[in-house]
């Protein structure tokens, strides 16, 4: 589990293809002070397992599904990536619940500055758009962000200078792909409602008595 608060911008040292999989090595001098084999590190929002480490570098394995489903297939040697270690149980929670299981990718449609903010519009598929809400949370390349605008096919973010400096969002340009993870609470609510309606012969109508029965006064 992660929070979406990026700890470091790392740099990809090597990408070695092994069939449809990839072995990736990342330079990360700041976050490896307490690393152990098997630890989880989110790389551009993708939860990956440390397979080996030495000095200021760690190596992870990208399985074929990860290569197909995320934007990591498009990065290369020298690319900067957002890095976050799995959250500690006793630490502060500054972002939102981020699983590191990317729901899909989006494309940056527009990027424009306004005073000290930069507005970024990201186009997504309908299967992702349904989980997005105004002022709701979304993780973009692993960064916990707040949605400030919505259309039928896109969402807009307002990025502060700190986010632009400390994450890869500062170097992203129009046309670039990004990893998108929607708020897991929205996905759980959808699944719970879907199960309820599947298991009822006829869904119960929402009436005054129904609301009182379920705690609404």
Automatic annotation (TrEMBL):
Lumazine-binding repeats (start-end): 1-96, 97-193
Pathway noted in the entry: Cofactor biosynthesis; riboflavin biosynthesis; riboflavin from 2-hydroxy-3-oxobutyl phosphate and 5-amino-6-(D-ribitylamino)uracil: step 2/2
Broad class of enzyme this protein falls into: transferase
Record-listed E.C. numbers: 2.5.1.9
Single GO MF descriptor: riboflavin synthase activity
SUPFAM superfamilies according to UniProt: Riboflavin synthase domain-like
Residue span(s) of domain Lumazine-binding: 1-96, 97-193
Record flagged with keyword NADP: no
Keywords in alphabetical order: Repeat, Riboflavin biosynthesis, Transferase
Example of a GO biological process term: riboflavin biosynthetic process
Reaction equations catalysed: 2 6,7-dimethyl-8-(1-D-ribityl)lumazine + H(+) = 5-amino-6-(D-ribitylamino)uracil + riboflavin
Record bears the keyword Transferase: yes
Function: Catalyzes the dismutation of two molecules of 6,7-dimethyl-8-ribityllumazine, resulting in the formation of riboflavin and 5-amino-6-(D-ribitylamino)uracil.
Assembly mode: Homotrimer.
PANTHER family, alphabetized: RIBOFLAVIN SYNTHASE (PTHR21098:SF12), RIBOFLAVIN SYNTHASE ALPHA CHAIN (PTHR21098)
Protein name: Riboflavin synthase
Gene (UniProt): ribE
């Amino acid at each position: 589990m992660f929070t979406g608060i990026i700890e470091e911008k790392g740099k990809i040292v090597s990408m070695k293809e092994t069939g449809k999989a990839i072995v990736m090595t990342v330079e990360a001098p700041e976050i490896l002070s307490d690393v152990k084999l098997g630890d989880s590190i989110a790389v551009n929002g993708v939860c990956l397992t440390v397979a080996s480490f030495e000095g200021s570098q760690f190596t992870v394995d990208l399985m074929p599904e990860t290569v197909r489903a995320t934007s990591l297939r498009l990065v290369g040697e020298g690319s900067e990536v957002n890095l976050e270690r799995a959250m500690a149980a006793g630490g502060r929670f500054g972002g939102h619940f981020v699983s590191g299981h990317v729901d899909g990718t989006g494309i940056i449609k527009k990027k424009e500055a306004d005073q000290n903010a930069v507005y970024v519009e990201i186009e997504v598929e309908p299967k992702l758009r349904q989980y997005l809400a105004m002022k709701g949370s979304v993780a973009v390349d692993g960064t916990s962000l707040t949605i400030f605008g919505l259309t039928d096919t896109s969402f807009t973010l307002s990025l502060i200078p700190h986010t632009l400096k400390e994450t890869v969002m500062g170097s992203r340009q129009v046309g670039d792909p990004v990893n998108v993870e929607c708020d897991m609470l929205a996905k759980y609510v959808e699944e719970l409602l879907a199960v309820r309606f599947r298991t009822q012969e006829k869904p119960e109508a929402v009436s005054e008595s129904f609301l009182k029965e379920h705690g609404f006064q």
